[in-house]
Write the structure tokens for this entry.
Amino acid sequence: MKFGVSYCLPCRKLEPYLKNIDSLYRDHLTIIGISTEHSAADWHRWVEHAHLPWIQILDQTVIPIAVDKYQKIQDTYQIVSIPSMLLIDKE
């Protein structure tokens, strides 16, 4: 998983490397981009402009953690800075 936003220059600099990894290892791993963007419109524009081929998620979705208690994906994985990347084993 890669956490980032469209206006983050280091996030943008990672994208060509991730595109290369995606093309080489698509059959063995899945890249998931998770945007912590505040504006859904900005996020949609960037995904279309950058031609990002992997799964894209806007982190405005909440995850239930208890009755009537929710949190974002970035909070679940304790992401404190962007870009951040996590490698998660399917096990």
The longest strand covers residues 32-35.
